[in-house]
Structure prediction request, 859 residues.
Amino acid sequence: MEHSTCFHCGLDATLSNITYDDKPFCCNGCKTVYEIFSVNDLTCYYDLQQAPGATPKDIEGKYNFLENPKILDKLLEFNDESVQIVSLYIPHIHCSSCIWILENLNKLNAAINSSIVNFGKKTVRVTYNYKLLTAKELVTLLSSIGYEPFISLDDYSIGKKQTNRSLIYKLGIAGFAFGNVMFLSFPEYFDLFSNKTGTGEFWLEQYKHLFRWLMFAFSLPVVFYSSQDYFISAYKGLRSKILNIDVPIALGVVVLFLRSTLEIAFDIGSGFFDSLTGLIFFLLLGKFFQQKTYAFLSFERDYKSYFPIGITKITDVGSESAIQVYDIKKGDRLLIRNEELIPVDCVLIKGSARIDYSFVTGESKTVSKQSGDKLFAGGKQLDGSIEVDALKSVEQSYLTQLWSNEVFKTDKQAAFTNLTNRISKHFTIAILSIACIATTFWLFTDNSKALNVFTSVLIIACPCAIALAAPFTFGNILRILGKKKFYLKNASVIEQLSKIDTIIFDKTGTITANKESTINYEGIELSLEEAALLKSTLRGSNHPLSRSLYNLLSEHNIVPLDTYEESIGKGIEAQYNNQQIKVGSGDFVGCTTETSTLNTTVHISTNKHYKGKFTFYNAYRKGLSQLFNTLNKEYDLAIISGDNEGEKTNLTKLLPTKTKLLFNQKPEDKLEYIKHHQGEGANVMMVGDGLNDAGALAQSNVGIAISENVNVFSPACDAILDASKFNQIYNYINVSKSAIKIIKWSFVLSFIYNVIGLCFAVTGQLSPVVAAILMPLSSISIVVFTTITTNLLGRKLN
Amino acid sequence: MSVIYVLLAISIIVAIVFFIAFIMAVKKGQYDDSYTPSVRMLFEDELIKDKSDKSILTKKQ
Prediction:
């Protein structure tokens, strides 16, 4: 059969037989999207990128909560008499076609005034006339073309959030002032104000006060606005009795400004305004550079990001109404539609439930439930609508209770003293003592110079280079690791990572691949016809086990089945040419020798004779054994799993003998285990994936979330690692260690500059020109040094 | 008035004009998203499309 892929979404369309306009489609949904686009002359969508689309999902009733004005108001950015503005997060945004189609939404509906895409954040900001188009209709329109927005409880509180741009303003002002002050300093640099050199430029001297006071004016916004953060941080540090790096910086800025102002006021000299503005500019540049964040990733997610905002409540009289999840009370009857998330712990009343708990446990297999069974919050319903009775409110549910643990309230960073601040403590003390000693010396020899020397020391020692070393190194490392699909939350994670001595892994979804599993067949061998029949039978079923078994079995001719019947929760029965087959659970198939096994099995029987069973094993990620053996030499390793012990023997074979294996661990147990180790002085790195690891990830020194697709959700963590790079963990830890070495070397380099500068300062010879050369030179050479070394480091990673 | 005043005044005015332009650009959110505009500027031509242009589509398959 000729192989073809869907024109819209690029999936396999060989078997679908849907063609429209001579183009193959995998399903009617994709075809419909194409029809919408072609009717509206938007087929250019397919020119920009091949097969860019997504299959639209059925969303019937899912967004009814958007009709509730109270909920809607929280989501809107702007709400006027006729115009509403809403920003929607659309996970599918991934290429230029997406930008194009979403920015041309007004072609599909005239009520939409404009729509602007932010590609980095994967959001679209839509301005529309709500008298002609309601928010629900807008969302339905987006979903119908395959761009279903994701609206979660998280959006509820932050609908009108303002972006913080103060750093850009501060940087811009400092740069502006720096350039102008430099320009005004040129007469000073070339000594044009004096006639001593005999250059004949004496006429300029009458204007020197104008030049100097202009410099003063330019430096005012820099001192009082741009350098604000340093003063605040230094004050906070001093109040909690910590000499952080901002203390000498703030001191330097104050001394620079006061001395320069006094100098020009009393006509002693030209002041150091160029050095002052340059210093702040470079420092802010470093901050800006380090601030690299991944707008499309979120490291702060809790259950709120997963949960829907609204849910359908069935009232006593039997009518449906959309209510907000926080308003769910114990005993409320709720309607959970297909593909909806269960927001509270509840009891199943009506309908057959097949729940996917992968959000909670990371386990991809679904669980079937009968009415009367208890369902936990966080599960996703997959088999049509169900009705449930709420047992608890949202905050009291089993899953959400984890977030009431105080781990989630403490700030990991605040408790951590970074390398720069540890150095700066000694540095500040040393500088202050040098300044005092030098001043005392000059008081006795030439007291007119004493004050000059004191301020010079503080000016030249202003640790610009030291303060720049870490931001530039870390900023660059963040970028390099980001390119290698290891996304760190911020720079301090690198430092934490370099100190790790214990690594704990979650099992399911972390060291095992989510999608792939391996199978093993035990029993009587199947004949060729039976194997073909089995494959044909499985093809009709949508059960995840059938799907994965179908994909794992070798190719066979597909035969048209005479009869086919699927019993939910049990198995499938099919017939072809007098041959009957049963696939499913042991009871259903008629397996008499059912041995209790911890692994997932699928049993087969043909013509009422039991044949055998397929056992599924976890497929471990590539290079797992090798990674563990390398890590084993330097780190304590442990595996901590919420699963049963079914894989224990398999794991002991694969992993180094020292590795600790713990099974049947609840989310709180994982957290406590890490806490226990930290109590013994260990620096723990936790590698996990599901929400059940959220507590452990928050408790550990470094929590890394593994993700098959970084665009879908991962729990709150310090870093997100793409699953394909799992075997690189060891190398990434080593990079962070090298980064610390680079910073230490930069410190050495900047100390050399400081010593040279101090020689000028203590001898009372510090002139503005020397300061203007030495300070930028030290900063720039540090930046160059760190950039080159980190890039060399990045190249080694390949 | 000496020429130096005129020159200084001009240079500072020019600098301030650019500075105001920068502040306005930040305020409008031009620095919030540095990627999408680079793609968006390439689109303009595709907005209006004749039916005859559909030949491009079939070519692509």
